[in-house]
Design goal:
This protein is α+β, with helices and mostly antiparallel strands and 1061 residues long.
């Protein structure tokens, strides 16, 4: 930088210094810069300021003196001295700092010897000065010796140079500092404005400084970044980052690619330049975000690959031929098109010319020469002959590309293999000719219409059939051909074609002579020569219409026949719509045929809104469409009053000429009356069965009552013979027990006779029942029991009854001569495998087989009916009772039989999962018990009286109550008086009052330890079957013997004793 003298010296300070020197030495001085500016000055001598410089003539001399000094400054050593014409000495010392002349230090005026006063008197006169004043001024001029002058000048020069030098250094340092500050500010500005990220880190990886670009790059604020380390920001492995830092420190610098983790989780790819500054022990670096560049490079590679692939797929090769250098480039695809190997063969323009078909070379050479000469692009198809003799057709395009200097000229272009296109083009030409031949040879007329309905093409059949020439027809709108009756429908039909893409309809076209031709139009929307058109095939249906009319007449004839049939008759299409219906069907549904035709069959027949098979009905028509075979079904229809009609439907397929089922004929036979007659027959049959049952019951009970009355009458006649009375009464008692067994069997059959189940083993039950049933018979038996036979939950008594009934029947069937085979085994039954066992599961199978007369097939379905029997002395209740018992056990009985071959009854009983069989309780022994207090509740007075007598006969005290409320009151009072009842016997059912179930519940609320017995004539009652669950301790089934009463009371009184009552 170029400085001025006033920049180097503190002018004000130096002025003071000069003033002091002038006061001491009376030596005026001044500092003047190169531009003549007086920077400092002390008082000049009066002789100059008041005389020489103010007089015009003498002032001119002063100027010449100044010019002399300035022109001789280069001779200064250290100053230039000059004796002016006025007799005074002036002195000038150049101020030069580091070789640069900044200004001059002037001194004067002075004398080096005593002045010649006479000289100055003369000079005063010459210039007209006041002599006295002038001489006085001369006397004030100092006189110096040369040595004093030199010392003074050297001092002044040195002082100026020192002061100026210091000033210069200070200025330079200030300038340097300013430049440094400016550079730092510029650097900081550059760092803050630059797009590259800048960072400073210590050798541990802690970031010390970053610019804004780096913060933007990683997504963090500057404060956040300066709290982080480089490994934390890096997306690379920490060990790799640490090794990279060590490499920078070791090698002093490094350039590499790195990955940073953005705050949002994304990864940034960056080029990194880093340098280690050992004097500051830091690393500085720059990150340039190249993520987009890398992506662009990847995209470029992908595009290049796609371009190559596109060239391969499109069979387009590219080439360049530098006409200046002769350099040739072919793409790989061009090599492949020419049948060459890019790895083995080289691009050669002469070789390519040799491969071009000789007939095509002149044309190709011509267009290439014109392109080079006129810079006009070319496009041409030509053939090439490959090394293997194959001929291909190429489409070549090229252009001239000139360099910026216009000296580089390159011919660039592409070559596409269009062999297959040419073949297809030829095939298309041939196809077009074939299409036209087919178009014109069609026996149906063909119209092509534009979207406005104008005929733009028609085949030969179309215009000849209508009596027009082709040109005449192509000038018409389709509305001109339509009969007026059909033109009103034309817009709607065209709209339907546009919306649905196709439409088929009937119309009528007018021939040129005005006659009408009925036609069927099959029109669709197609693309034709780049435009959408209506492509319509027109079929002359004159013959069809004639045939249809004949058919209609024929159908009318058939219809007349069908209308005479009593059965309903309808034809149903595949959409389940009625096509035709006879009068009988119309009468059934209560509609006229014009209200039926076209409607869904399920809507008319069933009066529902969806197909009957979706409502769970069996549909014969649907099965015809599915199987193609005739089908039948039973349906419920509704008549006009919505009454249910039971109909039998039969459906038969109707097929077209190709064998496809187009519709179905359904006959509808009203069998409502027939079904009602059948129901009446079944009701009559049921009444007959009930009559048979009632007759059987009356017969059996009359026989038993006859025996009872007889024995009692005979006892009354034998009052004097006690033994005979006892005998007659025993016989009457036995007859009564037979009556009990009969009622039990009837209950079991009618209501099920709920079993009182417990876990039992079947082996002893089966064996004992068989032995008992065959006792006294000559029939033998064979038992085959599986060793691992599963136990069952069953009523042992009921199960014994079943086995005995079946074995007795077997014995009767064999007339007491033969062998009954009884087997029992485990059976695992799959669900649905055996009718009657839909769930399947674990069962025990008991099979009882005889070799008797067998059962006739007509009787197999009736053997379980009550009172049905084929035996002379049979009751008809045995098998009916057995069936009910097994059913109530969750099992079934299956029968198979052949006449004269025998029968097999197979019983399936659910097996128990419990294997712990309870031991059968031993018969109670007759023991002596204390007298007990018994409370008996029964609503029948006869039962109360008899039971009270029986209890008294057993040695106990009995009190009776007619209902539950009375019994509860008696029980409470006896308990409060200290004479509680030991046992309470409660009748289960009390007409109009509280029964045993409610009574025992109330008694247990009063006395949880009450001992109660349920007594009932209903062996099938739930409470009887599971008495303990209802709070009872025992059960007495009416009627009961005194022995049963005794055993029951003895056991319960013993229990009462044990409980301390």
């Amino acid at each position: 930088m170029k400085y001025k003298l006033q920049d180097l010296i503190d002018i004000e300070h130096f002025q003071l210094l000069q003033n002091r020197l002038n006061d001491i030495y009376s030596f005026p001085s001044a500092i003047i810069d190169n531009e003549g500016n007086i920077l400092t000055a002390t008082e000049w001598q009066d002789i100059c300021t008041k005389f020489h410089r103010v007089n015009r003539e003498s002032a001119e001399e002063c100027k010449r003196s100044d010019q002399y000094i300035l022109s001789h400054l280069h001779e200064a050593d250290p100053a230039v001295s000059y004796l002016c014409p006025h007799g005074l000495i002036d002195n000038a010392t150049p101020i030069i700092i580091e070789g640069v002349h900044y200004g001059n230090f002037f001194t004067g005026q002075f004398f080096l010897e005593e002045p010649d006063m006479d000289f100055f008197r003369e000079q005063a006169k010459r210039y007209g000065f006041d002599e006295a004043a002038y001489l006085e001024a001369v006397k004030k001029v100092p006189v110096w010796t040369q040595e004093q002058l030199n010392n003074y000048l050297f001092f002044i020069k040195g002082l100026i140079e020192v002061i100026s030098g210091i000033g210069l250094r200070n200025l330079r340092e200030a300038e340097t500092r300013k430049q440094i500050k400016e550079k730092e500010e510029q650097a900081q500005t550059i760092l803050s404005q630059m797009f590259d990220g800048y960072w400073v880190m210590d050798i541990q990886g802690h970031l010390l400084d970053v610019n804004d670009a780096f913060c933007r790059m990683v997504g963090y604020s500057r404060d956040e970044v300066l709290q982080m380390t480089v490994p934390e920001l890096s997306a690379n492995d920490p060990t790799i980052v640490a090794e990279k830092i060590r490499g920078i420190i070791r090698n002093g610098s490094a350039i590499f690619e790195s990955r940073l983790r953005h705050k949002n989780g994304s990864t940034i790819i960056a080029d990194v330049a880093a340098r280690y500054l050992p004097d500051r022990n830091i690393v500085i670096g720059f990150h340039r975000d190249v993520t987009e560049r890398r992506k662009a490079e990847a995209d470029l590679k992908a595009r290049e690959k796609q371009l190559a692939e596109s060239q391969r797929i499109a069979h387009i090769g590219s080439w360049e031929y530098n006409l200046t250098t002769g350099q040739i480039f072919w793409s790989d695809e061009l090599f492949r098109i020419l049948g060459l190997d890019p790895a083995a063969d080289k691009a050669d323009f002469n070789m390519l010319l040799e491969m071009i078909h000789p007939d095509d070379r002149p044309a190709l050479k011509k267009v290439v020469d014109e392109t080079v000469r006129l810079s006009r692009p070319f496009s041409i198809d030509h053939r090439v002959i490959l090394r293997n003799g194959t001929t291909k057709v190429l489409h070549a395009e090229g252009e001239i590309i000139r360099g910026e200097s216009q000296k580089q000229i390159t011919l660039s272009g592409t070559a596409q293999d269009i062999t297959s296109w040419k073949q297809q083009e030829q095939a298309l030409v041939e196809s077009e000719a074939s299409y036209r031949n087919l178009f014109d040879s069609s026996t149906d007329g063909i119209f092509i219409l534009d979207l406005d309905g104008n005929i733009i093409d028609a085949n030969k059949t179309a215009y000849e059939r209508l009596g027009y020439t082709r040109e005449e027809l192509l000038s018409l709108h389709i509305s001109k051909l339509n009969h007026p009756n059909f033109n009103a429908q034309l817009p709607e039909r065209l709209k339907r074609i546009r919306q649905q893409g196709v439409a088929i309809f009937e119309s009528g076209h007018l021939r040129k002579d005005g006659s009408l031709m009925p036609v069927e139009v099959n029109s669709r929307l197609l693309e034709h020569k780049g435009k959408q058109v209506y492509f319509s095939v027109i079929r002359d249906i004159t013959e069809r219409k004639s045939t249809q009319e004949k058919l209609r007449q024929s159908e009318k004839f058939v219809r007349n026949i069908l209308d005479t049939v009593d059965e309903g008759f309808i034809v149903i299409d595949r959409d389940y719509r009625i096509v035709t219906a006879n009068k009988a069907y119309c009468s059934q549904v209560g509609c006229r045929d014009d209200n039926i035709i076209g409607r869904p069959c399920y809507e008319v027949s069933h009066k529902i809104g969806r197909p009957c098979f979706e409502e769970g009905e069996d549909c014969a028509v649907r099965r015809v469409f599915e199987t193609g075979e005739p089908q039948a079904a039973f349906h419920r229809h509704k008549d006009r009053e919505d009454n249910i009609l039971y109909v039998e439907t039969k459906a038969y397929p109707l097929r077209d000429a190709s064998g496809q089922i187009t519709s179905a004929i359904e006959t509808v036979n009203n069998i409502t009356a027939k079904l009602l007659l059948e129901e009446e027959r079944l009701k009559t049959q049921k009444l007959e069965s009930i009559g048979t049952l009632a007759g059987g019951i009356a017969h059996d009970f009359n026989n038993l009552l006859q025996g009872i009355f007889g024995y009692i009458s005979m006892a009354k006649m034998s009052l004097d013979r006690p033994e005979r009375i006892r005998s007659m009464l025993r016989q009457a008692e036995e007859a009564l027990h037979l009556a009990v067994n009969l009622t039990t069997q009837l209950l079991t059959f009618s209501k099920g006779g709920r079993p009182i189940k417990r876990l039992i083993a079947l082996e002893p039950v089966i064996e004992n029942a068989v032995k008992f049933a065959l006792s006294g018979s000559h029939t033998g038996y064979v038992l085959d029991m599986a060793p691992d036979l599963r136990p069952v939950e069953a009523d042992e008594g009921q199960l014994t009854q079943v086995i005995q009934n079946i074995v007795i029947n077997a014995n009767d069937a064999m007339a007491g001569r033969g062998t009954v085979s009884i087997s029992a085994a485990n059976a695992d039954i799959a669900g649905g495998a055996i009718s009657g066992l839909p769930e399947g599961g674990r069962f025990v199978r008991i099979a009882i087989q005889d070799s008797g007369t067998g059962i006739q097939q007509k009787n197999l379905d009736r053997i379980f009916d009550p009172y049905f029997t084929t035996k002379q002395r049979g009751s008809g209740l045995g098998l009916a009772t057995s069936y009910s018992i097994i059913r109530n056990h969750g099992g079934i009985i299956v029968v198979s039989s052949e006449v004269n071959r025998g029968s097999t009854f197979t019983i399936y009983l659910p097996a128990s999962t419990d294997t712990a069989i309870a031991e059968k309780a031993a018969a109670p022994e007759t023991v002596s018990v204390r007298k007990g207090r018994i409370l008996l509740m029964d609503d029948e007075e006869l039962v109360r009286d008899v039971a009270k007598e029986m209890i008294g006969a057993l040695g106990h005290e009995a009190q009776c109550a007619p209902d539950g409320e009375t019994a509860i009151g008696m029980y409470v009072r006896a308990r409060e008086s200290g004479t509680p009842f030991d046992v309470v016997i409660l009748d289960l059912t009390v007409r109009g009052g509280m029964g045993g179930e409610e009574t025992v519940r109330r008694l247990r609320e009063i006395d949880p330890d009450v001992i109660a017995v349920v007594s009932s004539g209903y062996a099938d009652n739930t409470v009887v079957a599971d008495f303990r669950a209802y709070g009872f301790s025992a059960v007495l089934n009416k009627p009961y013997r005194i022995s049963a009463l005794r055993d029951c009371l003895n056991a319960l009184i013993v229990q009462s004793n044990a409980e301390g009552k």
